Amino acid sequence: MRTFVFAAAAMGLCTGFAQAQYLMMPDSTNNALVLFDPTDGSVVNASYFGLAAGTPIHAMQVGNEIWVSEQIGDRLSRWDLFGNSLGAVSGGLDNVRGMGLIDGTVYATNSGTGNGAPGNAVVMFDTAGNNLGFFSTTGLAPSPFGVLAYGGGMLVSSSSANDDIHEFDLSGNSLGTFHNSTSLNFVEQMNYAADGNILAGAFSSPSGVYWLNYNTGEIVSSFAASGVRGVYQLGNGNIMWTNSSGAWVYDINTQQSTLVHGGGGRYIDFLLIPSPGSLALLGLAGVFGLSRRRR
Fold first, then answer.
1. CATH number of 20-288, picked from 3.30.420.40, 2.130.10.10, 3.40.50.700, 3.40.50.12100
2. Which residues, at least 6 apart from 289, have a Cβ–Cβ distance to it below 8 Å?
3. Residue 119 exposure: Cα atoms within 13 Å on the Cβ side
4. DSSP 174-208
5. pLDDT tens digit sequence for 206-260
């Protein structure tokens, strides 16, 4: 088993000039970026900034920017860390879902063929937004939904057969099936668990959150949850997961889930706001000469 740094072991909201760490999730019902405490999943800001009404799926930090995939908007909108729009990466994308940032390249899952898009594929961009081409997932991970860095390459989840999760190298060459079974169906987001195994959110029956063995892809354990989209393990060991009702926290001791944010729950990712930018969230930006556009 490889050793992983568990990003969710975070400091929480910090005062002064310390950096601040959060979990972020697009709320596709209210078109807002929601921030959570990475330790316990409590809501820090239910509307950090507004998002375009393009069905935002995945907000991911790319350097000092936040990129948001828009499934209906057919683009990757770009924002600074305070919510100011920086335009968008568009063209060659249609029905985009989850993303991954691996070795300086953004990998975005795509399904449609409009706008010159390649159909079922992963489209690649550099961090300046330049299109680097794509690789097809047809017949391997049809209708791709998520990307996770894995073993020098990546895992790509899928909403339909053949494979629930397929492994590729960074150039898009197939490295074989990671997981494919009737026990898992329509996998959306994947993330790493604290023990180094892989968490997978299964949207369709049998819907739930699954732990998959890092080396073999076999199911280690699971819990039932309805229509799972996003998944992330918190610093206290509990599991945050999302569905169309919002964001939930599953208590591993009581084995019960509690709704912590109502809205359109989507993918969950880590956000680091370096000093002195963290002061903006504390309402102290003006004191130190910073600015954040109100939306």
1. 2.130.10.10
2. none
3. 6
4. EEEEEE--TT--SEEEEEE-TTS-EEEEE-SSS-E
5. 999 999 999 999 999 999 999 999 999 999 999 999 999 999 999 999 999 999 9
The Cα angle at residue 64 between residues 170 and 87, in degrees rounded to 5 = 85
Are 92 and 133 within 8 A, CB to CB? no
List of long-range contacts for 8-12, beta carbons under 8 Å, 24+ apart = 8/38, 8/39, 8/194, 8/232, 8/233, 8/234, 8/235, 8/270, 9/38, 9/39, 9/235, 10/37, 10/38, 10/39, 10/235, 12/37, 12/38, 12/39
Q: Is this structure's pTM higher than 0.85?
A: yes
Q: Count CB atoms within 10 A of the CB of residue 82.
A: 18
Angle among Cα 193, 198, 203 to the nearest 5 degrees reads: 105
What residue has token string 């009581």? 254
Amino acid identity, position 217: G
* Residues 35-91: tens digit of each pLDDT: 999 999 999 999 999 999 999 999 999 999 999 999 999 999 999 999 999 999 999
**Burial category of 226 from C-beta neighbours within 10 Å (exposed 0-12, middle 13-18, buried 19 and up):** middle
CB within 8 Å of 45: residues ≥ 6 apart: 34, 35, 281
Question: To which residue do tokens 């879902």 refer?
Answer: 97
Nearest Cα neighbor of 292 from 66, 37, 80, 90 is 80
Q: Could you tell me how many helices (H) and strands (E) the chain has, helices first?
A: 0, 24
Can you say whether the dihedral through the CA atoms of 262, 266, 267, 272 is positive or negative? negative
User: Which tokens hold the place of 40?
Assistant: 């316990």
